[in-house]
Amino acid sequence: MLQYVIWDVNPEIFHIGSFSVRWYGLLFALGFLIGMQIMTHIFKKENKPVADTDSLLIYMVVSTILGARFGHFLFYEPEVILRNPLEVILPPYRGLASHGAIVGILLGLWLYSRRKESRLTNQTYLWVADRIAITVALAGACIRFGNLMNSEIVGRPTDVSWAFIFLNNSEYAKIPRHPAQLYESISCLVLFFFLFWFWNQHKERTPRGSMVGIFFIWVFGLRFFYEYLKENQVPFEDRLPLNVGQMLSIPAVLLGLYFLVRSYRTPVVLAEPDTMPKKIKS
């Protein structure tokens, strides 16, 4: 039986001069690349223009990174925005907030769906959001595993048999801790498989908003409780009854409940087939 896990993985895969490739960056990119393949599969199954996945990917990448960056500084270091707003978009990219990423994704999908909501494509906001929720769950699993490879966002001290000692984190080394990153990564992976199965059962008849509702309830409901097992990210959280992650998770869960209830009260209206007469070839 394990007493604890010694975690001394090098976060860097390799480097060439000053350029380095890290596990976190690789896993972050894999989340988008695999998600692109999943969305291509979904578009084919639901007879949507596969070419639209290229623009959807651009919207997702830009909105995720900008949302995560701005969210980090807004929620954890607001003084930086006042002192130097350009630091939000300029390297080094030392902070990403998942709550900010979700807000960015929701805004990005709104912009995307405004261009794709015509009768021909019928990519409404909730239609896209539901299916993107599948890929975001997988990306979340990849990113949290990247946090584990970085030995960051560590858990509180514990004596459980699966505790990790993060030797590469000088601030929290030598004490067995909850592998909170692994808890969240596994939770997101379970959600990914469930949402993909759920979509596969219903496809175009999936209640609009149901999957994004399940996503919010599952991810942020668990996030609220996982925060009790994690070290606070910034010192001012030590003085709060709930930390920032918990306070932001409450409205996210309520939003998820709204989407889920609404989805089963609103019937799914499928796109009507094209009834225009076809030109007969001579």
From TrEMBL:
Keywords: Cell membrane, Lipoprotein, Membrane, Transferase, Transmembrane, Transmembrane helix. The chain crosses the membrane at residues 23-44, 56-76, 96-113, 125-146, 180-199, 211-229, 241-261. Its main location: membrane. One of its GO terms (biological process) is lipoprotein biosynthetic process. Its EC number is 2.5.1.145. It is found in: Cell membrane. It is a multi-pass membrane protein. It is an enzyme of class 2 (transferase). GO terms for cellular component: plasma membrane. Pfam families: LGT. One of its GO terms (molecular function) is phosphatidylglycerol-prolipoprotein diacylglyceryl transferase activity. A 1,2-diacyl-sn-glycero-3-phospho-(1'-sn-glycerol) binds at residue 144. It comes from the Bacteria. Pathway: Protein modification; lipoprotein biosynthesis (diacylglyceryl transfer). Catalyzes the transfer of the diacylglyceryl group from phosphatidylglycerol to the sulfhydryl group of the N-terminal cysteine of a prolipoprotein, the first step in the formation of mature lipoproteins. Belongs to the Lgt family. PANTHER family: PHOSPHATIDYLGLYCEROL--PROLIPOPROTEIN DIACYLGLYCERYL TRANSFERASE, PROLIPOPROTEIN DIACYLGLYCERYL TRANSFERASE. HAMAP family: Lgt (MF_01147). This is Phosphatidylglycerol--prolipoprotein diacylglyceryl transferase.
